[in-house]
Amino acid sequence: MSNKSLTCLQKGLKGSVQVPGDKSISHRAVMFGAIAEGKTEITGFLPGADCLSTIACFQKMGIDILQKGDKVTVYGKGWSGLNEPSEILDVGNSGTTTRLMLGILAGRPFHSVVIGDESIARRPMSRVTEPLRQMGAEIDGREDGTYTPLSIRGGETKGIHWVSKVASAQVKSCILLAGLQSEGKTTVEEPSLSRDHTERMLEAFGVEVTRDNMTVSVEGGQALKGRSVFVPGDISSAAFLLAAGAIVPDSEITIENVGVNPTRTGIVDVMKKMGVSFKEKNKRDVNGEPVADFVVKTSNMQGTTIEGDLIPRLIDEIPIIAVMASQAVGTTVIKDAEELKVKETNRIDTVVSQLKKMGADIEATPDGMIIRGSAQLQGAELDSFGDHRIGMAMSIAALIAKGESTILDTEAINVSYPTFYEHIDKLRGTEN
Ligand SMILES: O=C(O)C1=C[C@@H](OP(=O)(O)O)[C@@H](O)[C@H](O)C1
Ligand SMILES: C=C(OP(=O)(O)O)C(=O)O
């Protein structure tokens, strides 16, 4: 287990970095490439542990995938090119791999076993196993298919009209992927709009997708065509640097090539509401996904309320938003965010317990947290609990805390941002 010691910065952050590729888009590019006919060439791929788990699972199903840094070539052979794996499919720490892959497996006429790490074993899978069973897949697993390990035998499935209780892109994508292999039409309705990378990328791979507000449909029996995919930088990774730029005194930094798909930019809305001093520049469109650069400066921020439809648009950014809120004037209230409890950790508990250790005035609520700002954070021993986003959020908090902090189990950060500390070092001017 690796730990990291950090102290309060003596000077501001300066310069510019390009955050690594978007995790959600990288997973989808590999998966869609694997089920498509012909070659898919991916540039800007995130070589983080989660996306490497996706590659390894599809290799076990007989797909040739070559990966070198951020370049990946996937030699898809169509839906029927996937073979029954002779080994267990290990998703590691990745919820996205688990749920999207189950949708693909649901329509494949073979048996497979899906397993992940300790954290995956705690995450609810019935939100996907239930609809997939209704579509016709045979699924078994711990607590009747609620948790991994899961075994699935796919085959002939039927379209479904599924009304999801949660705004979850993983649930939506899973059902749509099963629907593409099913008889008839499949529709997913969600309570608020979750990220729409699946819809966008399926269209780019030649699939017809019908969208109407919070409802998405596909007809079964559609094939995907391999293509080139350029993956923009991950706004969820950029969020840590945007927050660092805003809270570390005397900072001005540029973050280039950030994906700004409107279903992901809740953090930008919050930065506006909190009064963060930033500019969004060079907005452009790359492969059907909008991209921009950000310049952010040390800011005087106010507390705000974050709730409702905004939550799915920033769900992974809440740990770092809590750190920003601890430095704002006034109170920040985060509501409607129960989903935080079923991420890599219970992120309400882990954020609140670790920021409390640093002296923040923060309390957990049943669906979020309340943070009273203007705190002088103190260095402390902080645990990531094996959750990449907690490790990074606490590392940024440590940059403004009095005294030394030690972050435990920072290896977890490799899940989504393997070059995180290199980038912090670059911005603080301590790169070798
Ligand atoms: O579809 C995706 O790529 C993701 C969807 C979100 O999860 P949910 O679908 O569980 O909300 C998000 O938290 C996760 O990091 C990635
Ligand atoms: C929740 C996350 O990912 P996943 O669900 O893919 O494990 C995350 O990256 O914060």
From TrEMBL:
EC main group: transferase
Signal peptide: none
GO MF terms held by the record: 3-phosphoshikimate 1-carboxyvinyltransferase activity
Localization per record: Cytoplasm
Residues of the active site: 316 (proton acceptor)
Domain Enolpyruvate transferase: 11-423
Residues that hold 3-phosphoshikimate according to the record: 23-24, 28, 168, 170, 316, 343
Positions of phosphoenolpyruvate binding: 23, 95, 123, 170, 347, 389
UniProt cross-references to InterPro entries, sorted A to Z: Enolpyruvate_Tfrase_dom, Enolpyruvate_Tfrase_sf, EPSP_synthase, EPSP_synthase_CS, RNA3'P_cycl/enolpyr_Trfase_a/b
The keyword Zinc belongs to this UniProt entry's keyword annotation: no
EC number of the protein: 2.5.1.19
Annotated keywords: Amino-acid biosynthesis, Aromatic amino acid biosynthesis, Cytoplasm, Transferase
Stretches of the chain forming a coiled coil according to its record: none
Pathway terms, separated by semicolons: Metabolic intermediate biosynthesis; chorismate biosynthesis; chorismate from D-erythrose 4-phosphate and phosphoenolpyruvate: step 6/7
Catalytic activity field: 3-phosphoshikimate + phosphoenolpyruvate = 5-O-(1-carboxyvinyl)-3-phosphoshikimate + phosphate
Family designation: Belongs to the EPSP synthase family.
Alphabetized NCBIfam families for the sequence: aroA (TIGR01356)
Protein's job: Catalyzes the transfer of the enolpyruvyl moiety of phosphoenolpyruvate (PEP) to the 5-hydroxyl of shikimate-3-phosphate (S3P) to produce enolpyruvyl shikimate-3-phosphate and inorganic phosphate.
Quaternary structure note: Monomer.
Protein name, entry field: 3-phosphoshikimate 1-carboxyvinyltransferase
Protein species of origin: Thalassorhabdus alkalitolerans
Gene: aroA
